[in-house]
Design a protein that fits this description.
This protein has about 220 residues and is α+β, with helices and mostly antiparallel strands. Helix content is about 20%, strand content about 35%.
């Protein structure tokens, strides 16, 4: 997927980042690092972090994690960094190491819901802006997110994002969660197959997995004269 109509490919940028940074301290750290990677590849791309967008259906203002713009073309990104407890030292390409202490993000069902909600948010932006595309990028060191749902009947089955799972149309809870902010069902306009791959390794074993869900530009329908 090309970013903001440029020659910079999102997947190439993520691969380049993974070669340089195998781990991140936080979601904000990941957000800034990826934005910087893209900007280095093409300094004519403007980068906006926490860019405000209006959600007219809910009559509130929301934000995109990263918005890229170049010559009237846009790419909207939502990023998730879903971690379980891990600590250790990681060497970087420049030979300088970093100590990491990742926090545990519990409530897998809530986090899966948030990923699907991010896809919906990016869809809405792409649908309402010409010359726009977008993606949701997820990094995790927790294999619970990557496992296929295999016909799961769990309460959050509609929001499972395991490898090979396909998400489309309305997404509803089996029963409403106690968390009121996540009770609403979601509806996807496109169909998406979840495809996980390795982002980084440590000692020959996967350290982080990545999921890139691309939201294609809405086709322009020519007007009949």
């Amino acid at each position: 997927m090309l970013i903001a109509g440029s020659s910079v490919d999102l997947n190439n940028a993520i691969t380049s980042l993974g070669a340089r940074r195998s781990l991140f301290h936080s979601e904000a750290d990941f957000q800034f690092a990826l934005a910087w990677e893209v900007q280095k590849a093409d300094n004519e791309i403007s980068v906006y972090l926490e860019a405000p967008i209006d959600d007219f259906e809910r009559q509130k203002r929301e934000h995109l994690d990263v918005l890229f713009e170049r010559s009237g073309h846009f790419t909207a990104l939502e990023l998730k960094y879903l971690t379980r407890t891990w600590s250790g030292d990681i060497p970087h390409l420049n030979g300088v190491g970093q100590s990491y202490a990742l926090k545990n993000h519990s409530a897998h069902d809530h986090r899966r819901y948030d990923v699907v909600k991010d896809i919906v948010r990016v869809e809405k932006f792409v649908q309402s802006h010409p010359n726009a595309n977008g993606a949701v990028v997820v990094l995790t060191n927790d294999p619970a997110y990557t496992k296929p749902s295999s016909g799961s009947t769990a309460n959050d089955a509609a929001f499972r994002i395991g490898h090979g799972d396909v998400l489309h149309g309305p997404r509803e809870w089996g029963r409403l969660p106690a968390n009121k902010e996540r009770q609403n069902g979601l509806r996807l306009g496109q169909s998406y197959e979840m495809k996980w791959s390795e982002f980084s390794t440590l000692g020959g074993e996967p350290l982080l997995w990545q999921l890139v869900v691309e939201v294609a530009a809405t086709p322009t329908i020519p007007r009949l004269s």
